[in-house]
């Protein structure tokens, strides 16, 4: 009897312990999105940049760090509010004050209200060989609108009157352009020459890459560090893939990342750099060390840095989100995409993307920061050089072209 009592006592002690042990095991299998022991969260914020227009979307990819992230919420419904018919070639729309946006279409700079009313139009000319101008505008801190031209850069007042024109040694696409905290404008010409220009249109300095040339084009950017002391420019060779310069034009460093730089360059609040080099997606520390690399990711137009510091990118028919240390959190299959596809996200981390199932008809989709499809808008057209923007009213501005028409910009709510 005594031994029986001892056995009961031992069981009463061991069973709860066994239950606790099993409970701990069952809770440790699948990490949640908030589990920072498995995924690195690096909260992001808008870096103050008073020399850039203080609007909802003053330039391509939103800000001086080219994060592609809005500080406002995007559309929740996924329906077309307005269709604004424009030309065959359209750029990224940028937002001014009073719900006015500016866009280049068929070589003219246009100012429109969000309800589709044309406010003014100014012809800015074609590129070399008669090609349409597809340089997106950029709004700087004093409300001046900058736009690239066939042989330089021009500045306009918000009423459409021209302020100045500066001739350079080639054409300018303002995706390959930035404004520093010093108020100077930094841009690359089609000849591969890097320029610094003040806000009166005067050239301060110019320089060429010591090896190869500085990358220029509709798929690259100049991107500033968070403190504004230096900026990043793509290189055309594997030996000098990424240049780091100060605002005096001195090359501080040239990094060999293993391939020429492709696509946009983006920077997070800690100064880490993200871009494509050849076919790899690479993150580089402020000191030039490779933090992580995704081999054979492809070379799309840009990545997005979401509010938690996650990196969102496209690769081989998938939209992929990795944490700030490069660890994959999720991927979702999307329709066909191409190297022109732009990614942007809103303040909640919702990603907006264009996809296609057949390469002819295109959809705009919203995908949550957990990888859930929120809505789809089917459009009889597809985007070209132009990328989307977000407004403070919560609208998504999506430029689209089609052959045959319509050719216009959709305001999606």
Characterise this structure.
With 413 residues, this protein is mostly beta strands. It is built from 1 helix and 32 strands. It has one helix spanning 2-26, and strands at residues 80-85, 94-95, 100-105, 108-113, 118-123, 138-139, 145-149, 152-156, 162-167, 172-179, 185-189, 194-197, 203-207, 223-224, 230-234, 242-246, 251-255, 261-267, 273-277, 280-284, 290-294, 304-305, 311-315, 318-322, 328-333, 344-345, 351-356, 362-367, 373-379, 389-390, 396-400, 408-412. The strands form 8 sheets. The protein has a 4-stranded antiparallel β-sheet with strand order 1-32-31-30, with no helix packed on it. A hairpin with a 5-residue loop joins β27 (351-356) and β28 (362-367). The model is unreliable at 1-35 (pLDDT under 50).
**SS-based structural class?**
mainly beta
The tally of strands reads 32
Strand content: 35-45%
Radius of gyration: 24 Å
Strand line-up across the major sheet = 1-32-31-30
Note poorly predicted spans: 1-35
Describe the sheet with the most strands.
Answer: 4 strands, antiparallel
Helix content: under 10%
Q: Number of helical runs?
A: 1
Mean of pLDDT: 86
Q: Please state the overall shape, judged from the principal axes of the Cα atoms.
A: globular
Terminal CA distance reads: 77 Å
